[in-house]
Amino acid sequence: MSDTSRRAEIVKLVVSDIDGTLVNNARELTPRARKAVFALREAGIRFTVISARPPSGVAPLMAALQIVEPVACFNGALFVNPEHKPVAEKTMRPEDVLRVGHTIQSYGLDVWLYSPQGWFVSNLHGPHVEHQTWLVQLQPQAIRELEALSTGVWKMVGVSDTFDTVVRCEAQLQQDLSLQVSATRSQSYYLDVSHRDANKGAALEQIARLTGVPNAKIATIGDMPTDVFMFKGSGISIAMGNASADVQSAATYITASNEEDGFAVAMERYFLARNSASATSART
Hints:
By secondary structure, the chain is an alpha/beta fold. The chain is built from eleven helices and 14 strands.
């Protein structure tokens, strides 16, 4: 039995990150990536995603890929079924929402907040607001009083294009032992904060329970530090070529970048037994 056949026999579910992984930098799902997902199903391998996006930002991909498994949004703070109905959630404590918000602002970062009430931002004209509005199909609302929004929060985000400041704020939140949160960068300019059990590692555990697939038979693929949590809980992990060296060192394999169809390359090479010339460009 070839190595590829053995991997395909072991893996029963692929769990993918979206931005920087499943889609290219224009946030487009390429025909090759879509074809790879349908080929996985034909091979008896199920597929779903764990993303920092809200449900509205995941819905178009769920439709395009005909996903029938539970999907994790907000890094696992909210799970939805194929009908987009919530099946599980983890919300932040109100006191954590207030403390995190104040800490983010003390570092000069903008604050974003997602809850059933909508998407709220501290600066309506701040960096990435316009793009996020297009991406997730939500209209931002202004944060006027954080206290009034502190209940039922799925996720908060610290936003800045001063990347070293985002890193320092991340470290501060991770070191604050009074908080019951997970704080990790999902992009160099986004610091995602959610309930401590709403990270991609815990999300993978929940997906394993909801699907009945053991962790050892799950493969994960991603590009950011948030994805390392799910790498650790899966039988096989794949880092994108555009991932940092630290993320790549945490994975079983490394594929091409998201601009080079790295998701499809990985699926073809490791699980679909294809020997196309493009598949050989993946690195191990």
